């Protein structure tokens, strides 16, 4: 019998969005995703300008800060990732210059790419590097979210880094393994998305020996993300560049609507790198809350590097909390799970598999955290769209719109509701993973008890933290 | 010209518009908005972070001038020339990231003090500069 997500939607339910003729036509056009990238590039040009001329002014009145760390971040966590998977990677303008350089053009198809085209070392084909990169980036959160010039430096570093590294390493290795701080969590959390790109009929791909999607043809590039489009098991490394739609001679690729979190049930290619990504993301959500919205002023001062000692304390505590403490506590519960379930199951397998229960929990925690930014702070956006560079403009008559928090009275209910939904989804996915891992149902039930306890405890803690 | 070549040229133009065009449009709009009158741009920061970027402003009696004060600091600032009775409208406060604008025509010569009018730091009293108004 087919399993159902939350007991409602069968895991294998799909609706093919690209079966709508006009959607397929748009997706197959070479202007897609070029046009959204260019549009986005224009917005990022404004962001970079605002960051550069904004200097060290307060972040909440700066277009760069507001659009990167409020608008973009909220859209990413609340809309893009849960609904549209890695759609951000599709339209991201930051690596565009590097990719155009590789292709020596904007639109033309050129499967022999310019540059050294070095292969990325096999040992590093995982999320470890981006895990540390993202964690490293969060060390600067005190500056990034308050100092426009810091956001400018970060974005310019990514652009210049991508140009240099994409001239050395082939295709999208930069985005996938090397230089994008957010690429790791976009990949992991896109497993939660209700959309996916998959082959329509696997048999067609099996019978087609030439594999145009892998090697490219005159209509499109070989998959820049170096995956096998005919065998995408999970969304993790699909950057939604749409090249496979162009190259497939059988029109066999599809964008599907599906139930959420189904990729988490794919018992293939799970790894400790992704497990740690899940720990880090959950830990950062907690730490970010404490720094940005919590009442521990000293922690904010540490993160803002008021003193060197304070800043170093923040870096050390932040690292230990994310890299050791959360995984360590989780390990204790996994050990209990093994003891109750079946002691013959390898501990590493159990630890890795169950860590994926933290993916729904983590994403939902970020959504709940984001409400705390959305309701109190979004009115700043009205100011910055009218005067993006703080040059005294008033483009839309809203430059003097005062800071106006809204719905803050009901915000805790949104957060509690979201976190409880996250718990239910995590328990649902977790029990399915438990059944996969233990195989026997009674072992799976017993083995899942400690994990369920952990997930419940984390939810209660997050509710207390966010709304207490 | 082949369709592919044409697409490539259009794409190149779009990229230029998105980058250079955006920057150019912003600068042109700013010029259009503030042009026509001599404009002096002051940036405000508390003394320990840099103070006024210009400490001495030279004006000519009878020539209209605009002083645009950009607060690039993390705290509010204000602006006034007490001896000329000139200050910002409203609360007189320029919040971080905001801009205050004053337009006036100097009607007397001399050496006048301009100052921040919002208590911005422990060194607030040092956040001053001079306006020297001379005959043409």
UniProtKB/TrEMBL annotation, chain A:
Q: Which UniProt keywords apply?
A: Cell membrane, Membrane, Transmembrane, Transmembrane helix
Pfam families from the UniProt entry: Fer4_5
Its localization reads:
Cell membrane
| Every 4Fe-4S ferredoxin-type domain range | 66-106, 154-190
List where the protein spans the membrane.
34-57, 63-84, 126-143, 149-169, 278-299, 311-335, 356-375, 413-433, 445-466
GO CC annotations, alphabetized: plasma membrane
Q: What high-level taxonomic lineage is stated for the organism?
A: Archaea, Methanobacteriati, Methanobacteriota, Stenosarchaea group, Methanomicrobia
- Put simply, this protein is called 4Fe-4S binding domain protein
Q: Which organism is it from?
A: Candidatus Methanoperedens nitratireducens
TrEMBL record, chain B:
Q: Where in the cell is it found?
A: Cell envelope
Ranges in a coiled coil: none
Q: Which Pfam families match?
A: Cupredoxin_1
What InterPro entries would the database entry show?
Answer: Copper_CuA, Cupredoxin, EfeO_Cupredoxin, NosZ/Cyto_c_oxidase_sub2
> GO MF annotations for this entry?
copper ion binding; nitrous-oxide reductase activity
Superkingdom field: Archaea
Entry's EC annotation: 1.7.2.4
Q: What class of enzyme is it?
A: oxidoreductase
Q: Where are the transmembrane segments?
A: 6-29
Alphabetized, the UniProt keywords read: Copper, Membrane, Metal-binding, Oxidoreductase, Transmembrane, Transmembrane helix
**Residue ranges annotated for the EfeO-type cupredoxin-like domain, each copy included:** 50-132
Protein's UniProt name? Nitrous-oxide reductase
Q: Which organism is it from?
A: Candidatus Methanoperedens nitratireducens
């Amino acid at each position: 019998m087919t399993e159902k997500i939350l007991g409602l939607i069968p895991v294998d339910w799909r609706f093919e969005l690209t079966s709508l003729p006009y959607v397929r036509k748009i997706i197959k056009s070479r202007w897609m995703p070029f046009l959204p990238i260019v549009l986005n590039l224009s917005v990022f040009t404004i962001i970079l300008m605002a960051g550069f001329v904004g200097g060290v002014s307060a972040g909440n009145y700066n277009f760069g800060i507001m659009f990167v760390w409020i608008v973009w971040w909220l859209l990413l966590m609340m809309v893009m990732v849960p609904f549209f998977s890695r759609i951000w990677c599709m339209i991201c303008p930051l690596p565009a210059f590097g990719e155009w350089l590789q292709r020596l053009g904007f639109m033309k198809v050129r499967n022999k790419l310019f540059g050294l085209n070095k292969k990325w070392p096999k040992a590093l084909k995982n999320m470890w590097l981006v895990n540390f990169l993202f964690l490293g980036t969060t060390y600067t959160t005190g500056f990034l979210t308050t100092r426009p010039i810091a956001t400018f430096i970060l974005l310019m570093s990514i652009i210049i880094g991508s140009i240099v590294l994409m001239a050395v390493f082939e295709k999208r290795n930069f985005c996938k393994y090397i230089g994008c701080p957010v690429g790791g969590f976009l990949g992991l959390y896109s497993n939660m998305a209700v959309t996916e790109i998959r082959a329509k009929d696997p048999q067609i791909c099996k019978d087609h020996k030439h594999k145009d999607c892998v090697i490219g043809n005159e209509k499109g590039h070989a998959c820049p993300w170096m995956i096998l489009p005919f065998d995408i098991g999970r969304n993790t490394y699909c950057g939604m560049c749409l090249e496979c739609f162009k190259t497939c001679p059988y029109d066999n690729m599809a964008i599907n609507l599906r139930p959420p979190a189904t990729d988490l049930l794919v018992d293939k290619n799970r790894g400790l790198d992704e497990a740690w990504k899940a720990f880090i993301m959950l830990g950062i959500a907690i730490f970010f809350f404490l720094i940005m919205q919590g009442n521990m002023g000293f922690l904010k001062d540490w993160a803002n590097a008021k003193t060197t000692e304070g800043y170093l304390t923040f870096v050390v505590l932040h690292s230990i909390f994310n890299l050791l403490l959360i995984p360590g506590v989780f390990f204790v519960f996994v050990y209990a799970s093994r003891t109750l379930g079946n002691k013959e199951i390898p501990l590493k397998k159990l630890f890795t598999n169950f860590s994926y229960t933290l993916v729904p929990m983590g994403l939902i925690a970020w959504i709940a955290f984001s409400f705390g930014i959305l309701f109190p702070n979004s009115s700043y956006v009205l100011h910055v769209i009218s005067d993006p560079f703080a040059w005294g403009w008033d483009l839309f008559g809203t430059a003097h719109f005062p800071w106006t928090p809204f719905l803050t009275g009901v915000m805790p209910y949104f957060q509690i509701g979201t976190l409880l939904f996250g718990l239910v989804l995590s328990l649902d996915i977790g029990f399915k993973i438990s059944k996969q891992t233990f195989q026997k149902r009674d072992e799976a039930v017993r083995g899942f008890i400690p994990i369920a306890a952990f997930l419940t405890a984390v939810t209660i803690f997050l509710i207390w933290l966010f709304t207490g | 010209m082949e369709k592919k070549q044409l697409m490539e040229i259009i794409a190149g133009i779009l990229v230029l518009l998105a980058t250079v065009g955006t920057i150019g449009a912003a600068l042109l709009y700013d010029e259009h908005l503030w042009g026509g009158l001599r404009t002096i741009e002051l940036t405000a920061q508390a003394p320990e972070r840099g103070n006024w970027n210009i400490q001495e402003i030279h004006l000519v009696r009878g020539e209209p001038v605009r002083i645009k004060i950009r607060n690039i600091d993390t705290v509010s600032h204000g602006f006034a020339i007490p001896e000329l009775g000139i200050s910002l409208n409203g609360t007189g406060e320029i919040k971080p990231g905001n801009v205050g604008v004053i337009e006036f025509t100097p009607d007397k010569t001399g050496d006048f003090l301009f100052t921040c009018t919002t208590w911005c730091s422990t060194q607030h009293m040092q956040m001053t500069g001079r306006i020297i108004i001379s005959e043409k």
